[in-house]
Amino acid sequence: ARAMRFRPCIDLHAGAVKQIVGSTLTDDGQGLRTNFETTKSSAEFAALYRRDGLVGGHVIMLGVGNEEAAVAALQAYPGGLQVGGGINASNAKKYIDAGASHVIVTSWLFQDGELSWDRLRELVATVGRERIVLDLSCRRHPSDPSGPFHVVMDRWQRFTSLKVSAESLRALAESCAEFLVHGVDVEGMGNGIEDDLVACLGEWSPIPVTYAGGCRSLDDVERVRHLGKGRVDVTIGSALDIFGGALPYDEVVAWDKKQVAEAAGAGAPSEARQA
Fold first, then answer.
1. With 0-12 CB in 10 A as exposed, 13-18 as middle and 19+ as buried, what is 266?
2. Does residue 186 contact residue 212 with C-beta atoms inside 8 Å?
3. Are 120 and 109 in contact (CB under 8 A)?
4. Which residues contact residue 102 at a Cβ distance below 8 angstroms, ignoring those fewer than 6 apart?
5. Residue 241 scores a pLDDT above 80
6. pLDDT of residue 272
7. Is the pLDDT of residue 115 over 80?
8. What is the mean pLDDT of residues 85-96?
9. pLDDT at 217
10. Whole-prediction pTM value?
11. Which is nearest to 44 in space by CA: 242, 241, 240?
12. Is residue 32 pLDDT above 60, yes or no?
């Protein structure tokens, strides 16, 4: 059985590790709301995740001026981190060569709000399907608050025509290894997860998928496991104590190790193992 995993993150803004309210990120940087900022380097966080055996975490470059910090993190944990933010077919290989396990791509795949299958094919030809994570960060349209989730681009400000559905995930899964999905309306708010979205991902995704947004406790993590039927991995950002929150990072790491042990069949009581 595959274990549900905790996927750590390193969010970079202006070269520093931060936790921001994602929906407040704009082109000119005005109105940005920051939950947390640290003097610890990206490489120090990467080394921490490496020490704790956490795999498939993501380094996200929010805007320009983050390449050096991103590469430093990748070099501190070769093969252990994915990288995203401004990735396209011309720079993807550079990050794989620097040590990224995968590149995460979103806005570049869309032209005028429409998914470009040509660009996706170009990226697959450049680094291979097995190295690609598609970021399908999404939100409901304000005019239809109980309607479908639409993928958003350009710092989550622009709606695309792509809806998250069983059909769209199945079609896209042929060109990537994983999905990363931020629940944009709850991301960075610490008010709980986007229940409907997690349930849809657990039901529809034919490949590994990681959900991010609003997770603030191990109860929320268990809620993701329940709603996602154990098939949806989870990222926690600003709720963690290492990012200024209340949730102890060490407790989440312990939870992750327990999932791995149970999936490997090591979760049996010790008496049974001795027998």
1. exposed
2. no
3. yes
4. 82, 83, 131, 132, 133, 177, 178
5. yes
6. 43
7. yes
8. 97
9. 96
10. 0.91
11. 242
12. yes
The two tokens of residue 212 are: 């991010």
Q: How far apart are CA 98 and CA 200, in angstroms?
A: 34
d(CA 112, CA 222): 38
Question: How high is the pLDDT of residue 157?
Answer: 81
Q: Which residue has the higher pLDDT, 169 or 36?
A: 169
110 phi and psi angles, rounded to 5 deg? -110, 135
What CA–CA distance (Å, rounded) separates 229 from 201? 9
**Sheet bearing 138-140, strands edge to edge:** 138-140, 149-153, 158-163
Sheet holding 9-13, edge to edge: 34-37, 16-20, 9-13, 57-62, 81-84, 102-105, 132-135, 178-182, 209-212, 232-235
Please provide the DSSP assignment of 157-209 as one string.
TEEEEEE--HHHHHHHHTT-SEEEEEBTTTTTT-S---HHHHHHHHHH-SS-E
